[in-house]
Amino acid sequence: MAHCLYHPDLGYYARPETTIVSKEGDFMTSVSVGPLFGQLLARRIEQFWKMNGSPKDFSIFEIGAHNGSLAKDILSGLNPEFREKIRYCIIEPLENQRQHLLNTLGPEFTILATPPETPVPWGMVIANEVFDALPLPLYLFSQDKWHEATVTWKDDFAWSTRPTDFSLSGDYPEGYVTEGRPELKGFLAPLADCFEKGLMTFIDYGLDEDSLYHPSRTAGTLRCYHKHSTKKHPFDFPGEQDITADVNFTAVEEMATELGLLVASPMNQSRYLTYCAKKWLTSGTPPTPHELRQFQTLIHPSQFGNRFYAIELMKGDIERGFFTE
Fold first, then answer.
1. Single pTM value for the model
2. Which of 18, 107, 206, 240 is deepest in the core (most CB within 10 A)?
C-alpha cells in the first residue's frame, strides 16, 4: 500500500499531472463539490483565532493538499485582516507533487517537505481525507488463528500470509478479513510539534473500533478507487488507483491522548459544517442558489454529510472556540 500510493516516482499520489480527484478522475471529495467547503473551514479557522486573542503569529499547516484547491478555497474565505496575518504552509513529502505546487500556487503559500523543526507559537493543522490513505496492515482469521496478509511476487502479484501477534476477542468466522491500525504516532507527533499552541482538524470517513471490528464486517473496509469504481482489486492497477480504508477513530483518539493532546469527539460533517455555516446562513446577504446546492451536497446524509466526520485535537492551554460553545 505504501509503495503503490507513495513511491516517489510511480506512486499514485506522486503524479501531479494526472487528475485523480474530480468527476473526470477516480473519486470525489468535499473539495470537488466547490469552494464552499474550504470557505466554511476558513470560518472555523478564523473563529479559533479570534477566541484565542487574535495572535499576531499564526500559521496554517495543510496535509494532503493534492493540487492546492482546498488551500486556495480556504484563503479566499478568510477575512482580509486575518489573511494578512497568517502564514499558510503546505506540507508535501513527495518531490514531484511539491514541485507542482511550487509551480502552480502563488507566493501566499509556503511549500514544505516536512513539518518545521522549530514550532511556531500558534497554529492549526487542516487535513481532508488523509487518515484513510495511511498505509496499514491487513489481517485474516483462518483455521482458528490470526494471520497477517502479505503480498508476494513471482511473475505476478499474489497473496500470502505470515504469523502475527494481532488478535481480536470475539467469535469471528472463517475467512474474516480486517485492517490493523496504521502507524499513527509517526504521523501525528511531528504535526503536533508544528506549534506550541493550536488545533488540528481532520475530516475523513471512518468508524469507531467496535464497529470496524464487528464480526459481521467480514471483508473489512479496504478498497480501491479507479474511475469512480470500487470494484477493483488492489493488484489491478498498482500506482494508478487509490487504495483506502475507513479511519479507525478510536485509534486516532487513543494516540492523540498518548501524545498529550485533548480530543473533541468526532462529529459528522453535516453537523460540523452546519455549525460553521450558521452565521453565513443567517446573515443579511443570503447564499446564492449555487452556494446552497454546494452546501446541501456537503451535508446531505446520502452524500458527504453522514459518511464523513470531523475530529479536532487540541494542544496547549487554548480555547477550542467551536461554534456550539
1. 0.95
2. 206
